[in-house]
Write a structure and sequence with these properties.
The protein is an alpha+beta fold. The chain has nine helices and 14 strands. It has two domains: 194 residues, no CATH class; 109 residues, no CATH class. 34% of the residues lie in helices and 23% in strands. The two termini are 13 Å apart.
Length: 379
């Protein structure tokens, strides 16, 4: 079960027309627009052109504050064009330099080809090298003809599109319109991500993911935490594969139903302050032989966790439940643990990225608490 990354304050599922940036943890400017200064932080990988970043989004941009943001719903084709992603990909002969009898020249490499796109100066840009029989798939084919068509039956909404690494890779993301609601509160949103490469570093992938994709870091996170995935060989028959992709991604809806069932049972399971305290002490307490420093650290953590579970505004709709207990620990791990400032615009920037990257000290306590409350509720 994929963990839900908590945002500051409540964010519940809403209609796309009412979608607000504060509801999406990938929206705020966590890394700052001064991305060059954060060399070891957020390396978004987005292509930068004379016209701006090759990125487009609906309603809310990325924390990198780059590209174009639509203030209305946009089609997949609109995002594709606005993100400078609608470029053809084609093969050209691959040449190698040779030196023979003091004569320097070039020769065609047999059975190999350069994978190219048009360059901004009117020439040709080489994206990668492949077999001469390789059949490139354009971003339009991958996103508009395949991705948008695959989810058309569910009436999805295109959300983001971006070009990475100078055109070598690209992605498009859709917000599935039927957000998962847990007893009418605490939304769980699922997204469709379609991504691929033109340098053969990545196959064409369609995946249901827990997070909106806005750059290469969120793409990497989502591909590590997919709900379901389908990988397609690079052929020209993308349209033929539609039903196969739909069949594979159907698992996401089964996952949604299962997650809904588990979370709803936790939401319907009462939990007293005393029981919550007993669980967190067992899971995170210092133990009988702990020293003074460990005791003091636990006292501080214990106080914050009890406040989150018992009185915090973020628990208003789920207070006193097993689901609220899991979310209290999640909120503490995401937003109240110590964070470094060095190399980041703010501690919260580091906290957020630590959470989405699955850093062990942040993720493991969440997993432990979820297991504990599921055992308590018999789920």
């Amino acid at each position: 079960m994929t963990d839900n990354i908590t945002a500051p304050g409540n964010f519940a599922g809403t209609a796309w027309a009412d979608y607000q940036p504060t509801q999406d943890p990938t929206v705020a400017n966590w890394g700052g627009s001064d991305y060059d200064r954060i060399e070891k932080g957020i390396t978004d990988g987005l292509e930068k052109t004379a016209q701006g970043a090759s990125f487009a989004a609906v309603r809310a941009g990325g924390w990198h504050q780059l590209g174009t943001v639509f203030d209305r719903p946009a089609t997949a084709e609109e995002l594709l064009v606005t993100a400078n992603a609608d470029y053809p990909v084609f093969l050209r002969p691959l040449y190698a330099g040779i030196e023979e009898d003091s004569q320097v020249g070039t020769a065609t490499v047999p059975n190999m080809a350069s994978i190219c796109r048009p360059a901004a100066d009117g020439g040709v840009q080489v994206l990668g090298v492949g077999s001469k029989n390789y059949q490139p798939i354009s971003n339009r084919e991958a996103f508009v003809q395949l991705g948008d068509a695959v989810v058309d039956v569910a009436e999805p909404t295109a959300a983001t599109c971006g070009v990475l690494y100078g055109g070598k890779r690209a992605f498009m993301c859709w917000r599935l319109p039927q957000g998962l609601m847990v007893g009418g509160v605490d939304a769980h949103e699922l997204w469709l991500l379609v991504c691929h490469s033109h340098d053969l570093s990545q196959p064409l992938i369609a995946a249901i993911t827990p997070l909106r994709t806005v750059c290469q870091n969120t793409e990497r996170y989502n591909l590590r935490n997919v709900v379901s995935r389908w990988t397609m060989k690079k052929t020209r028959n993308a349209k033929v594969q539609l039903q196969q992709v739909r069949d594979a991604l159907k698992l996401s809806w089964e996952y949604t139903n299962e997650l809904d069932k588990i979370a709803t049972e936790l939401l319907n399971t009462p939990m007293t302050n005393a029981r919550f305290e007993a669980i967190i002490t067992q899971e995170f307490g210092p133990g009988e032989d702990a020293g003074k420093r460990a005791e003091n650290a636990w006292d501080e953590k214990h106080t914050k966790l009890m406040e989150l579970f018992a009185v915090a505004d973020t628990q208003a709709n789920i207070r006193g439940t097993a689901w609220g207990a899991a979310q209290a620990v999640g909120e503490y791990q995401d937003w109240m643990t110590k964070a470094i400032q060095k190399g980041w615009d703010s501690p919260d920037a580091y906290r957020f990225w630590r959470s989405v990257s699955g850093e062990k000290s942040t993720q493991q306590p969440k997993d432990a608490m979820l297991r504990a409350v599921r055992e308590y509720a018999g789920v």
